[in-house]
């Protein structure tokens, strides 16, 4: 395992969880925490993603890998990592920012491993898709269904993303063409596993839409989400249908999406249609979305250290052998996976 790892945004919920899991599995690794306010120890580094002058400490501490768990809208950290040949793993970007950063990296002279891992729950969905299909070129359709609990212990980033983007149209894909849609519309009934049962699920934007279509070339991709509260799910659909989100201020929208509980399960289900029919993979994280996102980031970091991946740009699922990724997730004590072929 690489010796010096920096987690920028390491004082947030997901960042702290990454540090805990990473250190427990790799006790010999030195973990530095980057944040705007710095800290009390020599491993707490004062780094502001909006101030490139603060990045010099990254080179001073001989950082081998940067894990970015805060949204760097201007891609300053990405460009610093490329310029200084430092491995980079980003778990934070919404779809438009991901597409922009991928374009920047693709046009750069890259001499390190640049990894984008901003898909749902740390970018593991495309890898799991590949475990239940005969190959990406045989897949006709992927549907992702997400169960989101307001009781889950959630960080600010997901709430802020929804507040900023709930009134903005986005795309899913039908017959390899983008279709403009909006959050919380176009209901589809889905029977969730793990005792959840039938729920109405609505449009939801995650980077996997972009990744599965543009990178994996799956022609039909959609994502639907339901809340643990049927009333909240219905209410958000009504707000969108009546365009109430369009007239609310950003502060008011943040109040709607900013709730965070003390912990609950997170569940997602993948339906893959290929020439042999439909297959389903169901995943439950009993400790919630922060734990699973952090675990995914740790698995990607460990894979970068374990195997000699060449210097280039990756999406995180491209680092892994699909069945190996599935096995590692299945081995974690708070993850349950059901596979129906």
Automatic annotation (TrEMBL):
Superkingdom, taxonomy of origin: Bacteria
Signal peptide bounds: none
SUPFAM superfamilies: NAD(P)-binding Rossmann-fold domains
InterPro entries: NAD(P)-bd_dom_sf
UniProt-recorded name of the protein: Saccharopine dehydrogenase
């Amino acid at each position: 395992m690489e010796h010096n790892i920096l987690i920028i945004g390491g004082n947030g919920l997901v960042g702290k969880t990454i540090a805990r899991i990473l250190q427990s599995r790799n006790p010999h690794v030195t973990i530095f925490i980057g944040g705007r306010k710095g800290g009390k120890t020599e491993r707490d580094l004062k780094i502001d993603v909006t101030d490139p002058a603060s990045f010099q400490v990254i080179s001073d501490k001989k950082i081998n890998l940067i894990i970015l768990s805060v949204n760097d809208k201007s891609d300053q950290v990405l460009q610093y990592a490329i310029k200084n040949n430092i491995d980079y793993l980003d778990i934070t970007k919404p779809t438009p920012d991901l597409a922009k950063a991928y374009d920047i990296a693709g046009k750069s002279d890259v001499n390190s491993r640049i990894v984008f891992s901003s898909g749902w729950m740390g970018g593991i969905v495309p890898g799991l898709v590949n475990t239940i299909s005969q190959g990406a070129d045989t897949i006709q359709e992927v549907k992702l269904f997400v169960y989101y609990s307001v009781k889950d212990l959630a960080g600010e980033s997901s709430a802020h993303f929804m507040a900023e983007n709930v009134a903005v149209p986005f795309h899913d894909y039908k017959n390899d063409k983008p279709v403009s849609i909006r959050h919380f519309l176009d209901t589809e009934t889905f029977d969730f596993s793990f005792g959840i049962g039938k729920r109405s699920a609505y449009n939801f934007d995650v980077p996997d839409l972009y990744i599965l279509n543009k990178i994996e070339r799956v022609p039909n991709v959609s994502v639907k989400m339901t809340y643990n509260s049927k009333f909240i799910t219905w209410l958000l659909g009504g707000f969108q249908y009546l365009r109430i989100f369009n007239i609310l201020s950003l502060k008011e929208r943040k109040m709607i999406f900013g709730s965070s509980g003390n912990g609950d399960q997170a569940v997602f289900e993948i339906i893959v249609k290929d020439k042999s029919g439909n297959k389903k993979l169901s995943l439950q994280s009993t400790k919630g979305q922060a734990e699973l996102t952090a675990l995914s980031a740790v698995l990607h970091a460990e894979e970068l250290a374990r195997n000699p991946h060449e210097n280039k740009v990756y999406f995180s699922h491209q680092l892994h052998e699909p069945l190996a990724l599935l096995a590692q997730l299945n081995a974690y004590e708070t993850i349950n996976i059901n596979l129906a072929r």
